[in-house]
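We store chain and fold; thus.
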Amino acid sequence: MKIEIKKSTKPVEYKEAIDYLKKRLVQVNQKKETELIWILEHPSIYTAGTSYNENEILDKSINVIKTNRGGKITYHGPGQTICYFIIDLTKRKKDIRKFTTTIENTIIQTLKEYKINSFSDRDNIGIWVNHKNKIKKIAAIGIRVSKWIAYHGFSINVNNNLENYNKIIPCGIKNKSVSSLKLIKDQNYDELNDKIINNFVKNLEI
């Protein structure tokens, strides 16, 4: 099954990325384009999903972009790996829960290659780690499905400035904080993007 792999080396503006995804979504729906996995970084930005609340913005001076993905408010910025996708679920089982599990397993398997144990949480979507006896979020997931085509994506904190999360209640979860791979295990993550892509493609075939 042909999936285009796209890797951007320079940061891509959020609006530019979302506009591209929306256009590609239509093309995939019309069978004019192939599915897509796109790895990139964004310049600093806060985005709010369809279920966010205004009280989750702690610093009212920040600019928040509203988006049509699922989920609540989160931060994107340098040092964070973002994986966008457009995946046609009509070519697989029309099962959104199974697709979400595929994403979760992809992140968990990838981090395991770096000797980092992580896990999903049915109550709080995303991927979590137990670091120094504290449960912290390491990856966020936001999905939207249109005519059985899943799009938007997930992000993994690699070496980003976590202070930016202090201005919001990340993903609406008050009692848990976020972390980054570098803080959990200071090692080389240069091959992370390739590992994500390889695991994602492999899991999509299951």
